[in-house]
Write a structure and sequence with these properties.
By secondary structure, this protein is an alpha/beta fold. It has helices at 4-10, 72-78, 142-152, 165-173, 188-195, 206-219, 225-231, 239-248, 252-256, 260-264, 273-283, 292-295, 303-311, 321-329, 333-343, 345-356, 390-399, 423-431, 438-445; strands spanning 29-41, 47-59, 62-68, 81-82, 85-91, 95-101, 111-112, 127-130, 133-136, 378-382, 403-405, 414-417, 434-436. Strands 3-2-1-5-6 form a five-stranded antiparallel sheet. A four-stranded parallel sheet has the order 11-10-12-13, with helices on both faces. Strands 4-7 form a two-stranded antiparallel sheet. A hairpin with a 3-residue loop joins strand 5 and strand 6 (95-101).
């Protein structure tokens, strides 16, 4: 409908405009054999099973030869086995995944997919098992380093577009780069040697290409603390969380001296732990002598306090202090991960090295020019948007004075819901939080 006056007259609901209809087609599926499973090591050491299909299948315009199986709990839940006939489709017509198994066609040679006994990259048997996840704990694992470097150079992190995957592999293989800070120690000669290839085109200029890499690395030094934290690949800490943390603790000194309670107090990072802990301090004698650092095992609990915890809560309360502590430890996972990194020898070392090498380790205050229609508002974005990518809408909300959070609570000002909005939308309705669509958001902010 092109008549804007008619659009205005028809209006919108909390979920969608009344003046248009979206038709969804059944996703295209294809059947093939899961011929092989390979294990890939990510930047945090997580070992992911990846399905290899034979023959490859053609879905939504492209040939699909592999797909992530995500984690071992997912493999067991779907009962996926090697040599099974599997159904493959694309999530959002983009990302291929295994929908399930055609069990009536399961061959006699189907084998259970076992967890790897060692890291497929470095060979260490020191693996951490965390539910459906298996992680390599070797900090010197080559595959981890390559993934960390690739992630560090990514567009949403330090944005070093001149560094590609193959160059990273060569620099690591040659031993020129053994850590993220080593990128900032690279010389033109080291990069030039890594970039040399047989059969180089006559019109190419490897000397200039190497200099472009050096210049790109130098330019990344000015990105700021938020990008640094995002690029380090700290477990559970994404781009938005890193930016929020950097704005709250805008210097390296402030960040290194931060207390666990301060991190847990950041919206969406604490899971209500601080409030719950203070409540329990008034109810349990043992809690009055504990700190949050002790609760989360960052500091030892004295023997006399541990004895009180073991004895129980008293006052006829059914939950013992021990049970309450375990419940608290299951919350504030992001804050725990960040604090653990900051307090670790490796975390402190990499941050201080980067500062010494001239990387900007502070965060400038956000300058907001023009009207601030979202000032003081806390907003949750959920579902698929048509006018914005997720990072674009979050940036726009910040520019207009608002704050984006990842979970809905009674303190949420409103929820911006796109297509296929799920649990966050349901929770907003349950709590009576206002829900608007993109059209309403555009009118509210007068965005052009």
């Amino acid at each position: 409908m092109d008549d804007f006056s008619q659009r205005e007259a028809l209006g919108v609901t909390s979920r969608s405009p009344r003046w248009c209809v979206a038709y969804k087609y059944q996703p295209e599926q294809a059947e093939t054999e899961l011929a092989k499973v390979e294990f890939q090591v990510g930047k945090t050491g997580t070992i992911t099973p990846v399905a290899k299909f034979e023959p490859p299948v053609f879905i939504s315009g492209t040939k699909v030869s592999s797909a992530s199986l995500h984690n071992f709990d997912e493999v067991e839940r779907k009962d996926i086995r090697l040599h099974d006939r599997v159904l493959v489709e694309k999530a959002g017509e983009i990302i291929p995944y295994v929908v399930g198994v055609v069990k009536e066609k399961r061959p006699s040679n189907a084998k259970k997919i076992e967890r790897p006994p060692e890291c497929p990259s470095c060979g260490t048997k020191e693996l951490e098992h965390d539910g459906g996840f298996v992680r390599c704990t070797n900090p010197n694992c080559s595959a981890q380093l390559q993934e960390r470097l690739r992630f560090w150079a990514g567009r949403n992190q330090m944005d070093i577009s001149e560094i590609g995957e193959k160059l990273i592999e060569k620099l690591v293989t040659k031993g020129s780069v053994r850590s993220i800070p080593d990128l900032y120690r690279l010389t033109h000669e080291q990069v030039f040697e890594a970039m040399k290839r047989e059969g180089t085109k006559k019109d190419s200029n490897p000397t200039k290409a190497a200099q472009n890499v050096i210049d790109g690395i130098a330019a990344s030094k000015s990105r700021g603390l938020g990008k640094v934290l995002a690029g380090l690949g700290i477990l559970h800490v994404g781009v938005r969380t890193a930016q929020v943390v950097a704005e709250r603790f805008p210097t390296l000194q402030a960040l290194m001296n931060v207390r666990l309670e301060e991190i847990l107090s950041i919206p969406d990072m604490g899971g209500g732990v601080v409030e719950a802990f203070k409540k329990y301090q008034g109810r349990y004698e043992a809690f009055a002598e504990l700190s949050l650092e002790q609760i989360f095992d960052f500091e030892a609990i004295p023997a006399n306090v541990m004895a009180k915890i073991e004895i129980g809560g008293g006052s006829g309360r059914e939950r013992s202090p021990k049970v309450v502590i375990e419940e608290l430890k299951s919350r504030g996972v992001v804050a725990q991960s960040l604090y653990r990194f900051l307090r670790s020898e490796a975390g402190a070392k990499v941050l201080l090295e980067l500062e010494t090498l001239g990387v900007k380790m502070d965060e400038a205050a956000t300058k907001r020019d023009g009207p601030q229609p979202l000032a003081g508002k806390t907003i949750v974005v959920t579902g698929i948007l048509t006018h914005f990518k997720r990072d674009e809408i979050e940036k726009k909300i910040a520019e207009l004075g608002g704050k984006v959070t990842g979970s809905v609570s009674k303190n949420t000002s409103f929820v911006l819901a796109g297509e296929e909005a799920g649990s966050k939308l349901e929770k907003a309705k349950l709590l009576g939080v206002e829900v608007i669509d993109e059209e309403a958001f555009l009118r509210m902010t007068k965005f052009e």
